[in-house]
Amino acid sequence: MKGRQLRLIAQDSTDVPAYSRKDIYARWGVRTIPKKRQRSKEKVEYFFGYKLHLNADAEKEIPLVPAIEPGNKHDSRLFSKLYEGAKKMFTFGFEAKYLADSASDSSKVKQTLHYDNVIPVIAQNGRRFRKSEEPKDKDYKKRWAIERVLQG
């Protein structure tokens, strides 16, 4: 039997440095430098290690499904694993929403969510000639719950 109903699910990842450069499973990954720490035009930096990918209940700030992968695994490649894991354990309420940053902005992700009647509230990735944009949905600001869960 599935657990309780979810209304807002948020997804993100954080880097986990490897203990040693001799770690054969760790890989070089990219992370965004927070605006407070940006000293030049560089917006990204590299790290050696892993990424903790996670989705969480954005209302209760409870972790749902974790996945630890090498640092070079992009967030969008873990969407299916995290989403399917949540579907197995929980039910999605009426007008449930999936909150994510622009790393999850793909037609495949949005198609999957639409198929299950889950509303994608995902930031638009500024590819080519488009500008990056945050969704206008009032619940998007609750995506920050995942940041608090990851900082734990």
Rounded to the nearest angstrom, the distance between the terminal CA atoms is 29 Å
Low-confidence stretches: none
Describe the sheet with the most strands: 6 strands, mixed
Provide the succession of SSEs.
EEEEHEHEH
Which band does the percent of strand residues land in? Answer: 35-45%
Protein traits:
6-stranded mixed β-sheet; 3 helices; alpha/beta; single chain; about 150 residues
Show the helix and strand layout.
Layout (H helix, E strand, L loop, with lengths): L4 E13 L9 E6 L11 E14 L4 E9 L4 H15 L1 E10 L6 H9 L3 E4 L21 H8 L1
Parallel strand pairs: 1-5, 5-6
Antiparallel strand pairs: 1-3, 2-3, 3-4
Structure description:
The structure is a single chain. The chain has about 150 residues and is an alpha/beta fold. The protein has one domain. Helix content is about 20%, strand content about 35%. The chain has helices at about 75-90, 105-115, 145-150, and strands at about 5-15, 25-30, 45-55, 60-70, 90-100, 120. Strands 1, 2, 3, 4, 5 and 6 form a six-stranded mixed beta sheet that branches. The longest helix has 15 residues, at about 75-90. It is globular and about 45 Å long.
